[in-house]
C-alpha cells in the first residue's frame, strides 16, 4: 500500500506556500518537496485546490468521513513533522488544516491506494506487485488476465496479483509496450503522473517518465482513450486515439527534446496540459525497443542520446548545441554502445570519449 504522500514536510509550510507567506528559504524547501515525487505534487495540488475552494468538498457521506479520518490521522502521525510549541492560533490553524486533509483524502484516497473504483477496505487488502527495471535492461511481464507487458529501462510499474475489481488498473512511471487481453466487462486502466489510458483490448506503447515533460501514447491496433482529471478526480477531458496515431501531452512549459520531430507529427501547437493528437505516423520507431531494436527517423542526436542512456546504462554529455541538433536515420540492433556511436559517426563526424559509464561527445 502506498502512502498518501511521502517525504518530510509540515502542513504549516505547505499552507504558507499556498498563501504566499513564506520566506525564500522555506519556499525553496516546499518546491524541492513538490518536485521530489509525483505523488507529492499531486497531493499539493489537491491541498491547494481544497484550501481555495472548500465548499466543493463538503458533500461527503458520514461513513466515508469516519473511515477516512482513521486512515488520514494515522498518516499524519507517521508522515508529518509538526511544530512542538503551538500557540492558540496555531491550534486553530491545525484543526482547519486537518479538516481539509480529511475532505481531500475522502475524495481521492482510492486513487493513492490503487483502487479508484473499489472500496477502501478492498484497497487495503489487495496485494500489489512492483517491478523496477534498471537502466540498461528491460523486462517482460504476464499479468493474471493474460495481458503481456514489455517494460523499458528506467521504469517502475505496479499492478495487483489478481484483478479482483470491476476494472483492471496498473500504475506506470516510465515506458512500456502493452498487448492487453480483451475483456469488454472490465476496462484496462494505466495510470500515469498526469493522465490515464483506458483500454479494452489492444496493442499500444506508453512513454510516461516522471522526469520528462512529455507523455506519449502510440496506438498500434485497437482502441484506447486518454483521460485527464482535475484535483478532485473529476474527468476533465477524454480523447480517443486511432491506430497509427500518437497522443502527446505536455506536462508544463519547458524545454522539450526534439521539438522539430513533434512539430512534424502534429497539426496544432503543443499546449501544456492538453492532449494533442498527431497525424498518421509510422509506429515502428516508437515500439521497436521492445524487440531489442532502436529505429531512428530523422531524429536529433539529443533525443537519440536519451534512448542510448537508458538502453546502455550510461551518461552521455553533449558539449555543443550544434551536435545536439544533428539528425539521424537508421537502425541499431544487438550492438555495444561503442558500436552504436561508431555507426552514428559514419553520417556526421564527431569525437567521443568513454570513461566507465560516462561518455562525452565533442566536435572535431
Q: Which percent range describes the beta-strand content? A: 25-35%
Counting H and I runs of at least 4 residues, what is the number of helices? 11
* Rg from Cα: 23 Å
Helix content: 25-40%
Order of helices and strands: HHHHHHEEEEEEEEEEEEHEHEHEHEHEE
What is the strand tally?
18
Give the C-level CATH assignment of the largest domain: Mainly Beta
Q: Unreliable stretches, pLDDT < 50, 5 or more residues? A: 1-6, 54-97, 102-125
Q: What spatial form do the alpha-carbon principal axes imply?
A: globular
User: Roughly what is the average pLDDT, rounded to an integer?
Assistant: 77
Number of domains: 3
State the CATH topology of the largest domain. Jelly Rolls
Distance between the termini: 53 Å
Write up this protein:
This protein has 364 residues and is an alpha+beta fold. It has three domains: 11-121, no CATH class; 127-283, Jelly Rolls (Sandwich), CATH 2.60.120; 292-362, Phage tail protein beta-alpha-beta fold. It is 33% helix and 29% strand. The protein contains eleven helices and 18 strands. Strands 1, 2, 3, 4, 5, 6, 7, 8, 9, 10, 11, 12 and 13 form a 13-stranded mixed beta sheet that branches. A three-stranded mixed beta sheet has the order 15-18-17. The radius of gyration is 23 Å and the shape is globular. The N and C termini lie far apart (53 Å). Residues 1-6, 54-97 and 102-125 have low confidence and may be disordered.
Amino acid at each position: 500500500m502506498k502512502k498518501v504522500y511521502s517525504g518530510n514536510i509540515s502542513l504549516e509550510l505547505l499552507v504558507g506556500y499556498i498563501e504566499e507567506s513564506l520566506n525564500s528559504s522555506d519556499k525553496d524547501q516546499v518546491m524541492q518537496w513538490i518536485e521530489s515525487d509525483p505523488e507529492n505534487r499531486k497531493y499539493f495540488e489537491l491541498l491547494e485546490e481544497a484550501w481555495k475552494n472548500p465548499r466543493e468538498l463538503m458533500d461527503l457521506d458520514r461513513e466515508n468521513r469516519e473511515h477516512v479520518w482513521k486512515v488520514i490521522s494515522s498518516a499524519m502521525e507517521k508522515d508529518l513533522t509538526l511544530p512542538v510549541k503551538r500557540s492558540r492560533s496555531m491550534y486553530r490553524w491545525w484543526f482547519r488544516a486537518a479538516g481539509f486533509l480529511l475532505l481531500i483524502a475522502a475524495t481521492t484516497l482510492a486513487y493513492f491506494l490503487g483502487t479508484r473504483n473499489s472500496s477502501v477496505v478492498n484497497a487495503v487488502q489487495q496485494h500489489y506487485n512492483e517491478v523496477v527495471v534498471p537502466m540498461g535492461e528491460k523486462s517482460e511481464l504476464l499479468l493474471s488476465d493474460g495481458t503481456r507487458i514489455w517494460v523499458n529501462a528506467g521504469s517502475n510499474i505496479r499492478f495487483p496479483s489478481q484483478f479482483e475489481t470491476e476494472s483492471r488498473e496498473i500504475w506506470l512511471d516510465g515506458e512500456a509496450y502493452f498487448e492487453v487481453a480483451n475483456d469488454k466487462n472490465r476496462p484496462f486502466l494505466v495510470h500515469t503522473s498526469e493522465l490515464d489510458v483506458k483500454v479494452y483490448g489492444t496493442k499500444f506503447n506508453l512513454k510516461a517518465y516522471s522526469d520528462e515533460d512529455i507523455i506519449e501514447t502510440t496506438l498500434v491496433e485497437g482502441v484506447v482513450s486518454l483521460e485527464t482529471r482535475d484535483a478532485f478526480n473529476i474527468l476533465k477531458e477524454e480523447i480517443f486515439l486511432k491506430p497509427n496515431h500518437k497522443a502527446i501531452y505536455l506536462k508544463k512549459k519547458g524545454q522539450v527534446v526534439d521539438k522539430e520531430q513533434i512539430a512534424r507529427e502534429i497539426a496544432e501547437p503543443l499546449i501544456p496540459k492538453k492532449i494533442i493528437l498527431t497525424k498518421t505516423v509510422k509506429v515502428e520507431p516508437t515500439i521497436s525497443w521492445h524487440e531489442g531494436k532502436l529505429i531512428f527517423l530523422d531524429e536529433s542526436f539529443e533525443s537519440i542520446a536519451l534512448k542510448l542512456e537508458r538502453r546502455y546504462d550510461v551518461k552521455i554529455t553533449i558539449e555543443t548545441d550544434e551536435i545536439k541538433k544533428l539528425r539521424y536515420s537508421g537502425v541499431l540492433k544487438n550492438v555495444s554502445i561503442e558500436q552504436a556511436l561508431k555507426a552514428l559517426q559514419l553520417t556526421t563526424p564527431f569525437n567521443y570519449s568513454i570513461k566507465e559509464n560516462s561518455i562525452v561527445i565533442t566536435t572535431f
